[in-house]
Structure formats: C-alpha cells, structure tokens
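Inputs:
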Amino acid sequence: MAESGASGGAVSISEVAEQAGVSVATVSRVMNGQGVVKPATRDKVLAAVEALGYRMNHLARNLRTAESRMLLTMVPDVGNPFYAEIVRGIDSVARQQGYFVLLCDTGADPGRERSYFDLLRTRRADGAICLDPDTVQHALAEEMNGVPWVACCEFDPDVAVPYVGIDNRAAAADAVRHLIAQGHTRIALINTDARYLYARQREAGMRDALAEAGLTLPAAWHVTVDSLDFDAGAEAARQLISRDEAPTAIFAVSDTLAIGVIRGLREARLAVPRDVAVMGFDDIAMAAQIDPPLTTIAQPMRELGETAARLLLQRLAQPQLAVPGVLLPHRLVKRGTA
Amino acid sequence: MAESGASGGAVSISEVAEQAGVSVATVSRVMNGQGVVKPATRDKVLAAVEALGYRMNHLARNLRTAESRMLLTMVPDVGNPFYAEIVRGIDSVARQQGYFVLLCDTGADPGRERSYFDLLRTRRADGAICLDPDTVQHALAEEMNGVPWVACCEFDPDVAVPYVGIDNRAAAADAVRHLIAQGHTRIALINTDARYLYARQREAGMRDALAEAGLTLPAAWHVTVDSLDFDAGAEAARQLISRDEAPTAIFAVSDTLAIGVIRGLREARLAVPRDVAVMGFDDIAMAAQIDPPLTTIAQPMRELGETAARLLLQRLAQPQLAVPGVLLPHRLVKRGTA
DNA sequence: ACGCAATATGTAATCGATTACATTGACTGG
DNA sequence: CCAGTCAATGTAATCGATTACATATTGCGT
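Outputs:
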C-alpha cells in the first residue's frame, strides 16, 4: 500500500508517465484535476503515482507558472509577542489560500530588508507584507516599485501601497485622556525613535489629549528609547523618576516597555498605580499576567494580520485594482495600572 | 544610473545576453563568478545587468541545481517566546550560510506538520528543523525517511535523526533539589501532556530529586495542562491551592505556565514566595520582569537554535555522515520566587 | 610565420513541470 | 457508409537558469 521504490525520492513526472503507460501531459492533467481524462486512465496514473511515491517538484511547476505560492512577511522583531500574533493572523489566511509564509526578522535594518525583498524579484516569493518602520519602507519604496506588497501597522501615506493599521493618534489620545480623567496632570511619555510612524502618531495623539486639558509635555518627561525590550522600559522609568519634578503617570508606546517600566518602578520602591500610574499599548497576552495587570490600548492584532494577508492576496489576484488603506478599531482596556 | 526599462520586472538572462552581445553562458558565468571571463566582457555584462535591472530567477536556477536554499523550521507555537529565541539562533546561522528560513507554526498538529514536511519532498525546502513533540516526530518518522531533517529540543532516540537539546531530566532534578534545599517538602508539579519528551523527562527528573530526599509526588499535587499559555498556569494554580493539603512549592515545566501560576496565586491572595514558592523552566526574557522575578532553569535557547541549524547544514553537505545528538548545558537561575 | 597550449566564449542539452495544438478514435446523423 | 463532432490523449515548445562540451581566439616559443 505504501510507497515502495522511492529510495532517493527523485521521481519525476515522466517516470510516472512511463509507469502508467501514458504521456506526461496526462499525468499533469490528473495531478491538477484539469482537462478531461477517462476514469480508467486516471486510475492508472494514480496507481503509478502511489507505486512510485511520486511528489511533484514545485520548483519546476513554479518556474513554468511563474509563481511560488510563498508570501514574505517582514517583521522588525519576531521575538516581540505583538508581531507574533499578527503573524498568526497572516498565516491563517495564507494557508487557507494555499500559500506558505516566509517569515523574516529584519531587525528594522534596511539592508536586511532589501535582501529579503529580493526574494520577490528573484521569484521565490509572490508578494510581501512589511511591518517595518515607515521610514524604512519609504527609503526602499522606489526600488520596490512594481513588486506586490502591502504595509501592515506601519505605512507611508506618500507611498501608493495598500496598508492596514489603526488610528494611532486617536488611540494614544484615548489613552492619555484616560490618565487625565484619573486626575493626572504630570504625564510622561516613553517613545521609540521617530523612525516609526506609530511613534510619531502616538506622540501627536498624546499632545492632542494634553492640549485639550491645557497640559503640555515638558522635555524632561519625554524619553526616547531605541529598543522595545523590557530593559529599555526599566531604564527609561529610572530616568523619569530621577527628575526634579517627577511625573505621576507614564504612557509607554508599547506593552513591553510598560512592563519594563513597572519593574523599574518596583526596583525603586515605587508602587503602581499608587505612586505612578502606567499605561501601555498593544495589549499583548502578558499584559494581563503581571501584577498589577496592565492598563493598555488593545490593537486587533490577529485581524491586522488577516487583513494584511487578504489585501495582499487581492493585490496578487488583481494587480491593477487600487486597494485602499484600511484602519481597524482600537480599544481601551482598563486594568490595574491606571 | 538606476535601472530603467525594468517595467514588468521580467528580465531574463537571455535578454541580458542579447543586450551585452554575449551568450547566456557568459552571463551565467559572470553572475556566479565561476569560470573565466575577460574583464572587458564582464563589464559589458554587468552594464547590461544594470541597464535592464536584471535579477536572476531563482526558481529556474534552483530547478537546475536541485536545491532551494530554504530551511524549513517547524515550531508548535510561534507566539511562545521560548521558540522565538531559538528561531533567532537558527536564522542567524542560516542566513550566514546563504539560506532563508521558512518558519511554520504547526500547533503540534501532525496533519499540519505533514503538510509542511511536504515542502521538502516537493523541493521547496532543502531541509527541516523540527521542534514538535517527539511523539509527533515518531508518528511521521517513517514517511520522513530519506528527507534531511534534524530535531531540536524534542527528539526520539529511536529515530535515527540528529538532534540537539538539553538534559531535561537532570535539569528538572536540579530545579526540584533547589526547592527541597529551601526546606520544601510539599512540592507540586504542573506538567504538559505526555506527548512531549520534555514533559516526561522533567517529571522523571522531579521524581529523582524527590526520591533522593525521601519524598513523593501524590496525585493531588500533579496537574496536567494542555496548553502552555498563562491562563493554563493560573487555572492549574487554582486547582492546587484548593486541595485539602495544599503544596508549599510549585514546579511548572515552563515559564509561561509559572507566570500564570503566580497570577493565579495572587488572585487567591497568596504571596509568592512566602506562601507558595514557584519554579519555572526556560528563562524567557519575561521571567526577570515580573514581581517577584521568576526563579527558573535557563535553557541556552539561542545556542539550541544555532546548533540545530549547523547540524542540518552539515547534514545537507554530507548526507551520509552520521551526525550525533548533542546536549547543551542548562543553568539554575535563582531569583525571587523560590 | 607556424603550431600548440591556454584562455575565452558559444552551443545546446538539461532540470521537471504546464499547456497550446495536433492527433486519434468513437460516435452521431443523414 | 461517410463526414463531422467531440472526447481523450499525445507531441513538443516553453519557463530561465546551469554546465559539459565544442569552438574560437589569443599568446607564446622557436
């Protein structure tokens, strides 16, 4: 019953054809279920396939059909749980459509990103989803002209590329408004570097909310980190509480940073939220686990990924069709830190 | 200076040859730096490449050379930070050797795993690294015969496949010995289902340490969860503390579980480590962030990934050579929870 | 200036599939 | 019984590279 002779594994369509006593065309038709073949012939072919343990060589097929059925996904950091969940979304719709996902960690490095993008031009991937900073996208936009890709989370409105994301500015404003509603007036911001669209937009949103309440963001309460990991958050917290006039609330642009902030505060014997309130962004799974649980803005991560994949697939199907950008809703999740 | 005409992007080697006034063989030689070509000719070709914006079609090349330069990596859960770090290790050595990594989330599902493995037989990947449960590996071992793959973390000694991992039994024993050294005698275990090699080995290691101290593991203190996420840990903790005689220490086979346990305990108003000590396993980044920081066993995640990739590459280079299994050292990390 | 070796380049087969077109055979109606 | 249809299958070109082998060019010694 099981395959037998397939020792090396290199069984080709012509060997199947020979074994079945038909032509390669017929085998191909059977394999793809296209064209008409007599049931008896089909059975002969199937029997030969089984007997030889034949598996189609997709390289050959892809060469002929000029597609690889691979989707490239570029993320700045696979270790960040925020991206992991988006990737899941991408993967689920891709697989459903018969595509595989090639996941690449670019480290937000344009050089690496370029080398990955090359997979598209060398036909090893059919399309790409890019989650890298919009500034990186912008830098590469010219060379990426003509290859099918979509932007996810980060996008450059000046680049005519389909995108999906959230309204970061409004979301950040919501976050800060919540802090203000709790009576805070001395609110600090921990932001990533301005290469990221979200960093700029969230800062703008914060300033919107601050302005509404007649508040401002002094430079002393504005710290910029160059990584999203826990330690960066802890270090930023340390800086903030050493200021002459320390803030009573901290808005961090990512949950990982916020969690680091809480540790930093704890190490300085400051209680959250009693001494300092903390607000994160993303709502990664970990946010609910820590003590106290993190108040944050939830992004629809899974949907972001799914939508990005759908946009890309649509693009591949109808290259000429202009695909619009889409913004998904966010949600304020009130928990224990603010 | 920049590429010009490359509108569609489908420039082939023959067009370059024509533009440069040479044959395709010469272009190929220039592209691959093989064989000898006169510098003047090389320049002509390079100029043509530049002018046309030529990018080699790797599908064609791979068909001819019968390799895809892709490495398949199968993990049960990309969202688990433990795997994320291993993947980083794999990626770094793969890229260094000119390979791309195709990362796949199997959900530990044999069906999905099989479909991914198919990428190998259909020549879309040259080799695979499998992190799925050893039982899943075992089930597929027969069909995977002949395809080059290696096992990482999970492996089946009965399957003649190269592997890399740690000595889970010894590591778990170390963990439990530490608990015992702290004076604990009522120690509970939260384990995953026995499909995983590490689950069985760590339980054995725990029993070793217990036996050394003349202790046992009553069924009431042994809970099995079917997922590694935070909630599973919290739920398990809830169960344990509701027992007639509650344990004073809990050993969870993964940090994510342990972090969930701590939340569960906190929600039940139990203090860690005063009321209950907690010990995790893996030492993911998050372990140091929570309050109190998690005592755990550190696995060399990055090295695990790097070693797995090296093993695979070695296997691809010399298929006949028998590659040994390798075990990497673990380390007890004493922090605040035990 | 000649012949021979070494160097440089071209020709064409090949990898394993898909697919337009050609061919074969069976069946139909008149 | 024949022409015409339609269904089933085969033939061969094709995708875009690599590469063994053939051929052309060059340089060198004498």
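Remarks. Chain B touches chain A through 50 residues (CB under 8 Å). Confidence is low (pLDDT under 50) at residues 1-7 of chain B.
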